[in-house]
């Protein structure tokens, strides 16, 4: 299925791919099976270590058809299953530092929330109604929220990181790029794997893993695969408040995939995953903020893992994810019709200590329920010199969100003379609301061979997206402790000063908050693309294209400041111009790209300190901006068993015009325009060595070492909050038995013990009458050492 004419390179693996029958092509599309290029074929016949894995080409689906990654005229970082295992990738943040102009960070405010940035286009938000700049797709299904998607993964066939706008084939909210994750498919051969691992390195406890997968045929036309995963992390950090370990998490995941091939020309694959995650809340650090105000009463060193806070909190997420994909070969254009249905339901609750102090000043519980359905129907076929992909898309997403701010518990404790514990807040704010998104899309793309070497690419996508919102603003639903009633009964009682009654509320658990904002709006857009690809020879190509992408307009479910409306803010338009080079030779693989990105109506969440609510987050179209960039990456065999990998990315990001008071001086002027764009580090680079060597009759070993660097980057739009530069050293040593059954591994991550914060939210000098200052800066793990054992049946 998904027959594809490959004209750019004629090395053996490329020729083999282009000559596959349609049913074999379908297996490639669904599973994204990794294939070795000509450089690595001989080495892989002898062993499957890190060096051979790094030279593998991955079959990708970046153009909604199966192709070798080097044949696709766009910037891609792709990892096959062997590479994922060799690099010990547990979750996407393991790739956060090391890809050119890519930052895959967990914001940490609500654990597992993606704040991904590619080519300087990223977000700094945990608000569930904020759409990403980097879309995440699992088995072709778009994940509609950033929340709860960064947790450990296992049994993946491939990860594809597509850099640059992907709006033609993937729709909205991929202005920076897209990440495609594909699970392993059932096959017609039995295979099974069991793996256990343990690691640690911080002042806290140990982190244990147990995982396994088994699959194979049931009948001639039915195959299944089952995957199980368990992680028990005791907590990497030690809390200075009481000496306990914090950052603990327990994750359970079960997955089943069923592949049915009723005929030689059709197949149906149904996949289901259930995950249950229960852990501590964010691990926040308070350090001196950008205004020079230290945290009170505890101020930690920014370049440390020190934390001292009393609200350990929690993060609980339960998710059901179902997808069904049907592929059928048709005679029309010798093509394939594909239909993909996706359903995802997620319930989560969280609690975070936002003041990051050993006394209760700003604690925030939250609840989120989401349910999404999507369906894509597409066709791919070959008509003479034209490869055509076209399709229709529908997406519907409902969410209910509640956020509570428990403020000034320390004050309630003081006013009651210590009778009330400081976990009883003096002031409570409730907000959130109901949100619905419905998207319709139609797209078409064609790659037309003008000559044997020159190909024209053209495409367009129409999208219509309607969003409706019912929002309760936190500042309106404010309840204050009634000291008289509380002290008289011993039970905390609250009154809303505006109504004289208790109006505490919860959209998820009820009763619902009083709505003060109701609106809906529809955005209709056209996203075109045009480009050319020229094959310099059988092993190399150059390409150039212009593409346009859109990021959805919408509403702010975390409305706090009465001076600003929850929306609607308008959509963001991105025009990208790119020239690239890709080649694969006996001496290695080398790719390069130069790009210019023009951003109109940049959509940003602006964080402002506030003495009443702690932090106010305003979402608006703040500016127009432009980003110039360069990327280089490659893999080079130095000897039969030694491979060098390297990459570098450079960004020059600046504002062209500013429409919002970004620095908070009440004037929109050149000082705002001179600020740095958030999450746009100027320089990223990486270099790694992978070496395979024999260890006698028992087997062979694979050693790896890598160094990756990422520049310091602004986190807040006023640049007072920022993320430290990163110098990351990773190592690994794996022993493989010649029988193919056993793999013993040792690994180390972040050996320089670099400190990384998911965010750097600035806190006010005072919250009400109580000093606080400092920051809410969730800390990521530092150095980690681990061991792993795998048995393949």
Count of discrete structural domains: 1
Shape: globular
The Rg value, from CA coordinates, equals: 26 Å
Number of strands: 44
Low-confidence spans: 1-47
What is the CATH class designation? Mainly Beta
Distance between the termini: 30 Å
Under CATH, the topology can be stated as Maltoporin, Chain A
Mean pLDDT across residues? 91
Fraction in beta strands: over 45%
Helix content: under 10%
CATH superfamily: TonB-dependent receptor, beta-barrel domain
The major β-sheet equals: 22 strands, antiparallel, barrel
Structural class: mainly beta
CATH architecture: Beta Barrel
Write structural notes for this entry.
The chain is mainly β and 793 residues long. It has a single domain (12-792), classed as TonB-dependent receptor, beta-barrel domain (Maltoporin, Chain A, Beta Barrel). 7% of the residues lie in helices and 54% in strands. The strands form eight sheets. The protein has a 22-stranded antiparallel barrel. It has a five-stranded mixed beta sheet with strand order 4-10-11-8-9. A hairpin with a 2-residue loop joins strand 6 and strand 7. The longest helix has 10 residues, at 22-31. It is globular and about 80 Å long. The relative contact order is 0.14.
